[in-house]
Amino acid sequence: MIAPAVAVHTHGQRGQQWQQRVQGQCPLLVLTLGFTATGLIPGISAAGATPADRQWTALADAEFMVNGPTPRPTFPLPPLTAGASPALISRAVVAGQQIPLTLLNAGLPHPPSVPHLDLGGQPARCLTSGSALPLEQVQQLWHRGLALGHQLAATPAAYLLLAECVVGGTTTALGVLTGLGIEAGGRVNSSHPTCNHRQKQQLVQRGLIQAGLGSAQAAPHPLAVVAAVGDPMQPVVAALALAASRSKPVMLAGGTQMLAVYALMQALAEVEHCAWQPANVVVGTTRRVAEDPSGDTVGLAQLTDACLMASQVSFQRSRFAALRAYEQGYVKEGVGAGACAIAASLYQGWDQIRLLAAVEEVLVQKAAWE
Fold this sequence. Notes:
The protein is α/β, with parallel strands linked by helices and about 375 residues long. It has one domain (about 5-360): Rossmann fold. The chain contains 15 helices and 8 strands. An 8-stranded mixed β-sheet has the order 1-8-7-6-5-2-3-4, sandwiched between helices. Strand 6 (about 250-255), helix 10 (about 255-270) and strand 7 form a beta-alpha-beta unit. Helix 3 packs parallel to helix 4 (about 85-95) and helix 4 (about 85-95) runs parallel beside helix 14. It is globular and about 55 Å long.
């Protein structure tokens, strides 16, 4: 019986079958870290109260996911405008259900303080430059991702949860979706309670024009779109999912960013003649993303032909205001929070009460060290 804590919003039968295949089995969480200078634009993101804070978000999330709350972290979780980091949710699940975790550095300004695999990438420039990343590096990340995807598919894990941490990544997601010819304007999400669509759209249009992709022409190569207006996480996760899907179920763990990755997968599979199994790939996120009234996640999933599912967990009854802020739309997703909540339900049958208790316990531990 499929967990009622998960709602399938598109491709219902495919989503139900996917859940049945993995129910009761342990996944491997793969967290790909990246950086784009787009995330430093004032007001672009709520994943860090200031642009200076947002420089360290991915490093802090990586350390927290591995070590949990500690007295003197190398990179403390950054202060937020409101609420708490979604890393609390993912950490609670990984620690409570002993789900293995692998960290990938696709392109950060500084190396993480915890064990990780460095893929040799670099941080992306702001997408308004129209040259966010060198094309050669995007190609290298793509090929490294394919090789690693084959390796991960050979691990004992029943399925893969492919998560990300890229501050400003919903804007680069809009850039890639638009560059691929998908009408994503007004549909993407944001870490703000109300999505800053106008700001995102203006930035993306500047970048596409700078790259020479702003007018009608022959469709660019998908990796050229990433090089123009994307970030280093995107080619890595697209490659991981494509390669692993040939033999294992995969959940793209996130909202708008992973719908962009799914669209990138489709485009790359076609132009690069990559065999893959679309039925093995779903996108998993939070209810707050799927039902965000200031975006259209479900419509975007329909446009990209992705199977979208969402955890139905609510923090409305939490005794902590920082967790109740999730229900007000602050920092709706990140670090695979929604997918980890889905996995918690499917693997060990955690219900709403058990998951909330686990997340609150992590928050209490964190507060004890502050």
